[in-house]
Amino acid sequence: MSDATLGMASEYSNSGLCRDRGTWRLSLGGHRVVVTEVFQSYWFLAAERQTMFFRRVLGEPAPWTDDPVLARHRFTNAYRASDRVSQYLLQHVIYDSDRDIHDTVLRVLLFKIFNRIDTWEHLVARVGEPEASCFDHEACAIVLDERLEAGDRLYSAAYIMPNPNFGFPRKHHNHLALLKDLLKEGIILQLSRAASLQELYLALLAVPSFGRFLAFQYAIDLNYSPHFNFNEMEFVVAGPSAIQGIAKCFQDTWGLKPEQVIASMTADAAAHLGEQPTAFKDLDGRPLHLVDCQNLFCEVDKYARIRHPERSNGGPTHIKQRYSPDNRPLCLGYPPKWGLCWSADSPLIVG
């Protein structure tokens, strides 16, 4: 990869993993750091999870891996955009029709706050397609009240969603009021004027209740759309689980910020993946980006709970979500601007 392509990651390129008197060491930000066995699992997880993805794409029957941890528990894909919810966002929220930037931002934030496909589909079926010019947060609240009272969940368990303080007793009322407020106060217009991924993140960070991790994730989701075209190699924010994963991979990072560690891993991903027993097949020529390597730190934090329990660092020692194979063919589509063979504006059923 060229420095121009790598952007931020090029500053933190490693000089190789080597064994020194029985200890594995790696050059990280100019320091020789000690890596643990979880570091090797990080790259195994990336390669094996991507292999599982392509086995599904090819229509092979489950199980798609011999690794018992991956076979029994739920893990995200190596590429964030390949995950089921991201694919739905791309195909049914962003690229299902041509929309202006205000409608697109509202739709993405409304979908991602709840992050559940069935919640979105229920809202659209009952209230109609969300539009910035006539967003009726009260009608949406009533519809979701009915769903909640019927015993259905409204929010995904993937993120912890803080409750913004808009004075309502129910969290979803507050979130819908928040979106209405963003429209009224012109914040969505401000988001549309961001000149970089970091500026977009900072504008989202100023929104009540979003926080660092959610603001970055939402910035990536908005950047999938045709209205933003920022380089994902320019900026990353480490979430809490990624920070835990980093702590399990390295005995010491010499004061480097988690984002610098992620950049270093991304810079040398090709070299480390080339050493794995399972050959890594990238996403139609697209290498792993900063957000993908950030997510992989979250996933190796979970993976190590079972594979390397001695590295728990006082955290959880089990994985809550079990994996249930879905043998339905995949419908794949990525942002058209990426130039991949699967495009979200005309997704293909594969497998």
Q: Report the β-strand fraction as a percent range.
A: 5-15%
> Which blocks of ≥5 consecutive residues have pLDDT under 50?
1-7
N-C termini distance: 30 Å
Per DSSP E runs of 2 or more residues, the count of β-strands stands at 5
Principal-axes geometry comes out as globular
Largest sheet: 3 strands, antiparallel
The number of helical elements comes to 15
Integer count of domains: 2
Notable traits:
mainly alpha; two-stranded antiparallel sheet; 5 strands; disordered N terminus; 2 domains; 15 helices; globular; 3-stranded antiparallel β-sheet; 47% helix; 351 residues
What does the model show?
The chain has 351 residues and is mostly helical. The chain folds into 2 domains: 3-81 and 236-350, no CATH class; 96-223, no CATH class. The chain has helices at 3-6, 37-57, 68-72, 84-94, 101-114, 117-127, 137-149, 171-184, 187-192, 197-205, 211-223, 240-249, 258-267, 269-273, 290-307; strands at residues 17-20, 23-28, 31-34, 330-332, 348-350. A 3-stranded antiparallel beta sheet has the order 1-2-3, with no helix packed on it. A two-stranded antiparallel sheet has the order 4-5. Helix 6 (117-127) packs across helix 7 (137-149) and helix 10 packs across helix 11 (211-223). The longest helix is centred in the N-terminal third of the chain and has 21 residues, at 37-57. The chain is globular. Residues 1-7 have low confidence and may be disordered.
